[in-house]
C-alpha cells in the first residue's frame, strides 16, 4: 500500500520530540547552599583522611622506627661487657635507648629513650623527663622518681591502655644487666597538664612522704585529647640480675 504525502507529514509530526523545558537558573541562595555543601563534603573527606593518618598511619611509622631502634639496643647489649650501656650508670643517659618498659596490664614492651619532646615520643617510645623535672634513673642507684611519658593515641600510642593498670600491678624496667620490678600503688585518673608535682622525687600527691625508688607513668587524658594528664605511680620492690638467657622475672611470665 502506497504511502501518501499526508501520511508522511502525520508520521513526522507524531515522531518529533517536544522541545525541552527551559532550564531554571539557580538563585543566589541556591548557589551558596550548593557551594557550601560541596565544601563540607570536601572538608569531611580531608578530616577523615587526617584521622586515618593520625590514629593509624602514624602508629605504623612509629612502631617501625621503635622496632628498628629496639633491635639496635638489643644487638648492642648482645656484644657483651663494655658495649653500649656497660656498668656505668651515667652512660645510660642516652637518647639511643636505655632499656625497655614492660607493663603486662597494657600488654606491651616499650623502648625507653631520653627526653619527652614530640621528636622523641613520636618515634613510638616512652621518654624519661629531663624538663621541667629531671627523672632519677634507676640505674643510678639513687632514690628518686623515674618519671616517664608516652603518647596515648597516635605515634605508637604506647600508653593507650594505661587505664587498665590497677593498684598492685607490676611495672618492670629492663636494662642490659638488671630487671627493676615495681609495684603500682597509686593512680590519678586526671590532673592538670601543668601539674609537675606528680614528677617530684617524693611524689606526695601519691601519698608518699619519704624518699624512695619510685616510677611514674604519665600520658594525656581523656582519650583522643590532651586536655589533662593521667598518672600511675609505682614503687620498687626488688631487682634481679639478668642471666645469660635473659629469663624475665615471674611477673612477666
Keywords for this structure?
single chain, about 250 residues, alpha+beta, Sortase, Chain: A, eight-stranded mixed β-barrel, 3 helices, 8 strands, elongated, disordered N terminus
Element layout with pairings:
Layout: H1 5-15, H2 28-78, E1 99-103, E2 108-114, H3 118-121, E3 126-128, E4 144-149, E5 170-174, E6 178-192, E7 213-221, E8 228-241
Parallel strand pairs: 2-3, 4-7
Antiparallel strand pairs: 1-2, 1-5, 3-4, 5-6, 6-8, 7-8
Brief overview, please?
26% of the residues lie in helices and 25% in strands. It is built from 3 helices and 8 strands. An 8-stranded mixed barrel has the order 1-2-3-4-7-8-6-5.
Approximately how much beta-strand content do the residues carry? 25-35%
Q: Please list the strands of the largest sheet in the order they lie side by side.
A: 1-2-3-4-7-8-6-5
- The string of secondary-structure elements, in order, is HHEEHEEEEEE
Helix content: 25-40%
> Count of DSSP E strands?
8
User: What's the CATH topology name?
Assistant: Sortase, Chain: A
Summed up, the helix count is 3
**What's the CATH superfamily, by name?**
Sortase
Mean pLDDT: 84
Separation, N- and C-terminal Cα atoms: 101 Å
Unreliable residue runs: 1-14, 82-91
CATH class: Mainly Beta
Structural class: alpha+beta
Q: Which shape, going by the Cα principal axes? A: elongated
Number of domains: 1
CATH-level-2 architecture? Beta Barrel
Q: Main beta sheet: strand number and arrangement?
A: 8 strands, mixed, barrel
Computed CA radius of gyration, to the nearest angstrom: 31 Å
Amino acid at each position: 500500500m502506497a504511502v501518501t504525502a499526508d501520511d508522511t507529514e502525520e508520521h513526522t509530526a507524531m515522531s518529533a520530540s517536544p522541545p525541552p523545558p527551559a532550564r531554571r537558573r539557580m538563585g543566589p541562595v541556591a548557589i551558596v547552599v550548593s557551594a557550601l555543601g560541596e565544601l563540607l563534603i570536601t572538608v569531611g573527606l580531608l578530616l577523615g583522611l587526617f584521622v586515618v593518618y593520625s590514629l593509624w598511619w602514624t602508629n605504623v611509622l612509629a612502631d617501625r622506627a621503635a622496632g628498628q631502634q629496639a633491635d639496635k639496643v638489643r644487638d648492642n647489649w648482645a656484644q657483651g661487657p663494655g658495649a653500649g650501656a656497660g656498668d656505668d650508670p651515667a652512660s645510660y643517659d642516652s637518647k639511643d635507648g636505655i632499656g625497655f618498659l614492660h607493663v603486662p596490664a597494657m600488654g606491651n614492651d616499650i623502648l625507653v629513650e631520653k627526653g619527652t619532646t614530640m621528636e622523641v615520643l613520636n618515634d613510638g617510645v616512652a621518654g624519661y623527663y629531663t624538663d621541667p623535672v629531671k627523672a632519677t634513673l634507676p640505674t643510678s642507684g639513687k632514690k628518686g622518681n623515674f618519671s616517664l611519658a608516652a603518647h596515648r593515641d597516635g605515634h605508637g600510642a604506647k600508653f593507650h591502655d594505661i587505664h587498665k593498670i590497677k593498684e598492685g600491678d607490676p611495672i618492670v624496667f629492663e636494662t642490659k644487666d638488671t630487671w627493676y620490678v615495681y609495684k603500682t600503688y597509686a593512680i590519678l585518673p586526671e590532673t592538670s597538664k601543668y601539674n609537675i608535682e606528680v614528677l617530684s622525687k617524693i611524689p606526695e600527691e601519691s601519698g608518699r612522704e619519704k624518699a624512695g625508688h619510685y616510677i611514674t607513668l604519665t600520658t594525656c587524658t581523656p582519650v583522643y585529647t590532651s586536655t589533662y594528664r593521667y598518672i600511675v605511680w609505682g614503687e620498687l620492690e626488688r631487682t634481679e640480675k639478668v642471666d645469660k638467657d635473659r629469663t624475665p622475672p615471674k611477673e612477666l611470665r
